[in-house]
Amino acid sequence: MIYLCVDCKQYKKMKKALITLSLIITIGQFGFGQETDQPIDSVAIAQQKMEKLEQEIKADAEAKKKIEKAEKARKKAEKAQKKAEKEVKKKEKLAKAISSKKKGINKSEMKIRKLQSKMAKGKSKGKISPVDEMEINQKINKLELAIAKDKEKLAKLEQKQ
User: Fold this and answer.
1) What is d(CA 136, CA 122) in angstroms, rounded to the nearest whole number?
2) What is the model's pTM?
3) How distant, in Å, are the alpha carbons of 15, 40, 127, 157, 158 from that of 161?
4) pLDDT value of position 15
5) Distance of alpha carbon 136 from alpha carbon 118, whole angstroms
6) pLDDT (tens digit, 9 = 90+) per residue, 74-106?
């Protein structure tokens, strides 16, 4: 026993499917009826295929050119980015070198002050021999030369900055 209801969803779906199937069949029959029996021109078909192939080749060439341009632009951007990063690193390195030179100069100046105060204390107490005094003066002179060289290097570094 088959129970069909007019409001039933399955019934509506089945009805649409049958209508669609019958339309397809009738259109197919009319389509075959209108077809003419003209001889197929193989030259024309070959020309159409050649034209299609030429169009595809042109499209491929254009796409290839676009891809190459995009690659060049990407490489150029990467190169510029690397150059900028390199420049930043160079500036950081220069700043670091300047600060280390300043530290070195300050350290040497502190050493000179310590040696001078040691020599002054030793002279006042009379504990420093002339040989010790000469050695301390040589150390001070050596440090002063090193400071002068470091100041020259610092000036060069600051000019680069």
Assistant:
1) 11
2) 0.53
3) 86, 82, 49, 7, 5
4) 80
5) 9
6) 999 999 999 999 999 999 999 999 999 999 999
**Alpha-carbon span 24 to 19, nearest angstrom:** 9
| Residue whose token pair is 């002054």 | 120
What distance lies between CA 71 and its chain's CA centroid?
14
Q: Tell me what pLDDT residue 129 has.
A: 87
Q: Which amino acid is at 6?
A: V
Give the pLDDT confidence score for residue 23 in this predicted structure.
78
Which of the pair, 21 or 53, is modelled with greater confidence?
A: 53
Q: Decide if 160 contacts 129 (C-beta within 8 A).
A: no
For every residue of 22-82, DSSP letters joined together read: HHHHHHHHHHHHH---PPP-HHHHHHHHHHHHHHHHHHHHHHHHHHHHHHHHHHHHHHHHH
Q: Is 122 in contact with 132 (CB distance < 8 Å)?
A: yes
Helices and strands counted in the chain (H then E):
3, 0
Q: How far is CA 110 from CA 33, 81, 100, 140, in A?
A: 111, 44, 15, 11
- Rounded Cα distance, 138 and 146, in Å: 12
